[in-house]
UniProtKB/TrEMBL annotation:
It is a multi-pass membrane protein. It is found in: Cell membrane; Membrane. The keyword Transmembrane helix applies. The lineage of its organism: Bacteria, Pseudomonadati, Pseudomonadota, Alphaproteobacteria, Rhodobacterales. One of its GO terms (cellular component) is plasma membrane. Keywords: Cell membrane, Membrane, Transmembrane, Transmembrane helix. This is Probable membrane transporter protein. It comes from Celeribacter neptunius.
Length: 272
């Protein structure tokens, strides 16, 4: 493949990285919910081994989320948008869940990973498009074990999907009447706790796997991560600033449509 052949792919990745950075700050989603499907489709257009495509997309997305989440969380923290108490309470479950997901990826084939990503993404898109947020309680669960269980599930599923914690945790926190801007800000910090152990798991899972591209650490493509990072890190604070200024209702709904289309395509690919 020549440089001219690669150029449209590089431009597509950069544009996706910019959008992912903005979404990370605006919605607390870590950018992975944008990066994973686009990286997956870009890799699918090449001669890349199909059995590795989604694993590489997920792991590479998680590697960038480490730094994107740091950038986004700092921006929210400066505005008082990070709940330190909840972060401390959920940290053990998020870390253990994310590490478990990364290590388990070795035993899940490409179709299984597509079903997980597509199924959860479809549910998330429906939730984002729903005008009225589901409310389960007027306060967070008080039992520590319940919080550990919830955070473990969030960490594990987020790891397998290659996303930050916000995609799942923001709807969950909102269901327990957690103020939305504070939920988004705290979720951006969750992304750090999820991405680091998840990347470790994906690196260990991918070691020795044949047909990986050059300069890969396990399932993580280092060149792709280095291309994405400057743009996601730069634009995450832009999204965080917008989150404190805009009514995100219509942005969320437009994103929900994109996510639903991606989820359906992912599911049809897995079941076809």
């Amino acid at each position: 493949m020549t440089f001219l052949d690669l150029l449209p792919l590089v431009i597509g990745v950069i544009a996706t990285a910019i959008l992912a950075g903005i979404m990370a700050g605006l919605l607390g989603v870590g950018g992975g919910i944008v990066l994973v499907p686009v990286l997956f489709w870009i890799l699918s257009l090449t001669d890349f081994p199909p059995e590795l495509t989604l694993h590489m997309a997920v792991a590479t997305s998680l590697a960038t989320i480490i730094f994107t989440s740091i950038s986004s969380a700092r921006a929210h923290y400066k505005r008082g948008g990070v709940d330190a108490g909840l972060l401390k309470l959920w940290a053990p479950g998020l870390v253990l869940g994310a590490l478990s997901g990364g290590l388990a990826a070795k035993y899940i084939d490409a179709s299984g990973l597509k079903l997980i990503f597509g199924g959860i993404a479809l549910l998330v898109s429906i939730n984002m498009a729903t005008p009225k947020t589901l409310v389960l309680s007027t306060h967070m669960p008080r039992a520590r074990i319940v919080n550990v269980m919830i955070s473990y599930v969030v960490g594990g599923i987020s790891s397998l999907m290659g996303i930050g914690g916000g995609t799942l945790s923001v709807p969950i926190l909102s269901a327990f009447s957690f103020e939305i801007r504070r939920a988004v800000g705290t979720a951006s910090a969750f992304g750090i706790l999820i991405a680091i152990p998840a990347v470790i798991g994906f690196v260990l899972s991918g070691l020795g796997t044949p047909d990986r591209p050059p300069f890969s650490l396990g399932f993580v493509s280092v060149p792709a991560a280095l291309l994405i990072l400057p743009f996601t890190v730069t634009f995450a604070p832009v999204g965080a600033a917008l989150a404190h200024k805009l009514d995100g209702k219509w942005i969320k709904r437009a994103f929900a449509v994109f996510l639903a289309i991606t989820a359906v395509r992912m599911l049809s690919s897995a079941l076809g």
